[in-house]
Structures are given as structure tokens and as C-alpha cells.
Amino acid sequence: MASDGWYLATDLDDFLARAGQFLHSRPVQHTVPLTVTENLRTAGAGLYGDRPPEFGVLREGGGPGVRAVFIRTPPHPLTLTALTARDADDLADRLAGAGHELPGVNADRDTAAAFAAAWQRRTGTGAVLARRMRLYRLGELTAPRPAPPGHARTADGSDRGLLGRWFGEFHTAIGERAGQRAEDWADRRIRRGDVLLWQTPDGTPAAMAGLSPEVAGQVRVLGVYTPAHLRGRGYAGAVTAEVSRSAPAAGATEVLLFTDLANPTSNSLYQRIGYRPVSDFARYDFA
């Protein structure tokens, strides 16, 4: 369906046929929609929830070119690429007019703010800035020195219960709803072999960090977690450095990660090991 420049794709294949080249044109800025669509492609449309995903493409001047997209995986917030304030207003009008109920929006800082304001004007719904994030790109990797005792290893089937538990604890700690069942997440990560654990000399797993699937030459470090009683000993920095070092073997030319700007410790840590700021993002929750 199309009007006012927006095309609402019927499914993932339709969306990627129209927007894939656009997403690949700026893989760093488009890391989230690239990762989400790759996960949907490989794991199926039900990965993030029971309702089917929704996709939109903003055509350039009404023609075949693309200047923005949106993705929604209910019940999660709307994800947007960069929009002007006018385009954000048009999209809010279009979605609200079609009866969409949105829990929030996730996008670069300016786009998220513009859409949240437009959604408030159109629906009367309150919008709260829930999280401010910074996207980083790896420059020259500098492993922490001295490294904490122990070594990194790839998580395997014997770690399934641990990964599932830490997945839940991680999302509780950051105050976000998990995008998928913990057991399913653990099984997929074990099959892919893209989660590393930092293991102490006595064999105790002390921290984890994973990589998103490689798409358009980029991967993202995610799920960095250390249980509360083991924090402050350098485990998170050590396992992040090791998983970052492994990224080129996964086919990546760009290694990215997001941080919560409310956490100065993690922002400082990642910069010390070689990550450099790219741009700021935000998530607004709609009341």
C-alpha cells in the first residue's frame, strides 16, 4: 500500500527487495535494522513476538529511490532510520490514522525526538525519554592491561543454562524487555558460536559478550554482562576486547557497539579499549 511517499511492505522479502540497497549504503548508521532483518530472515517472522513484523519504506520523491525506512516487531518499539521533522510528522499521521498503537520509538537522537513529538501531537499520548545511547565504532583495539586472571572461551552446549540466565539478568539490569525467549537466544548463540565467556583459572565463567550476525560488513558487540558479585575486576573489558578481536573472522570490517549514556563506567571502558563515538540514539516510551 502506498501514499504520500510511504510504501508499507507486505513481508520481509518485499521490504528487502525495496530497501536492502538503502540499508547497505550506510551499514554503520543502519546497524539496528540490518541486524533485525537478518535475524528475521534466518530465524523466522515470529522471532520477536507473536504478531507479524511491520515494514515501511519512504520513497525518494515518490520514485524508486529510498530515503528512510521503519521496522516494527510487535510488541517492541518502532525502529526508524533518519527522518526530517516533516517526514516524522507525516509518518506519525499515517500510522495513527491507520490505527497503529505504538509502545515507543527507537532511532537516532533527533529522529526519535521528532517522531515522539509528532506522535504526541497526533494522538495525545505521553512520551518519556527512556534511554539515551551512543553508537561506537572500533578503531585500534587495545586490550586491557593487566588482563584479569583467566582466559576467553567460546560458549558451548554445557553453558546453555548459564547463558539463558544471564540473558534474563542482562535485560533486567538495563531495564529493557528481552526481544526473545532466553532459551531460544542461548540455543542460537551456541549454534553460531558467537558468544565468548571470560573464565577464571578455577573454571568459573565470570562475564560474557557476543556478536550480532555479520551483515553488510558490520557486526555489533552485544550482551556484555558480568554478574553483580563479580563486577569491578576487569572481566567485562577483557571479554569485550576478545570478542572484538574475533570479529574479522566473522567477516566484519566494522565492529560497533551501543552504550547507555547513563552509565559512565561502560562508556569510559569501551573508549579505553579503542571504541570511538559515532552518533547518539534515543528511545522514547509512549504512555
Helical run tally: 8
Largest sheet: 13 strands, mixed
Coarse morphology: globular
Major beta sheet, strand line-up: 1-2-3-4-5-6-13-7-12-11-10-9-8
Describe this structure in words.
This protein is of the alpha+beta class. The protein is 36% helix and 29% strand. It has helices at residues 12-25, 31-43, 85-97, 109-123, 160-174, 182-192, 235-246, 264-272; strands spanning 2-3, 6-9, 54-59, 66-72, 78-80, 104-108, 127-138, 151-154, 195-199, 205-211, 218-225, 254-260, 275-286. Strands 1-2-3-4-5-6-13-7-12-11-10-9-8 form a 13-stranded mixed sheet, sandwiched between helices. Helix 1 (12-25) packs antiparallel against helix 2 and helix 5 (160-174) packs across helix 6 (182-192). The radius of gyration is 19 Å and the shape is globular.
Helix-strand layout with pairing:
Elements: E1 2-3, E2 6-9, H1 12-25, H2 31-43, E3 54-59, E4 66-72, E5 78-80, H3 85-97, E6 104-108, H4 109-123, E7 127-138, E8 151-154, H5 160-174, H6 182-192, E9 195-199, E10 205-211, E11 218-225, H7 235-246, E12 254-260, H8 264-272, E13 275-286
Parallel strand pairs: 5-6, 11-12
Antiparallel strand pairs: 1-2, 2-3, 3-4, 4-5, 6-13, 7-12, 7-13, 8-9, 9-10, 10-11
